[in-house]
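PROTEIN ENTRY
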Amino acid sequence: MVWDLLETLGNLLDVVNLFSSNSSSRGLHYNDKPAKKKKSKYYTEKVSGCFIAAAGILLFFVFKDPLPAENYTQTLLVSSLIGTAVSGLLFFLLYVLNLYYFKNFFKLLLFSGSVILFFISLVGCVYFRSGLFV
């Protein structure tokens, strides 16, 4: 008897919810996923282009004056290794956050190469222009 009353009350509430103007719960099911923002068509290429442009500007600042002659190749090698390590750390963080995936191999190479070049130029700019390491 009590169960019939609760079942009737539940059915009545379902009917009231159906005719109510509040549509926030309507159309949401367990398997539905929230709508994602639509990304730009050439998002990876734009980000890679920005990294390449920033790297070009930084490399201009590094190489516009002659570099110190002492341990020139060793200094460039160390700054390249540090930049590659920092970019590898960024790639690992992007992978952990499930943001390091690409539709084709060209986009992967373009993005990875531009990020590595950017961090190498950033480390070189900090290394040569700050005066902390020289």
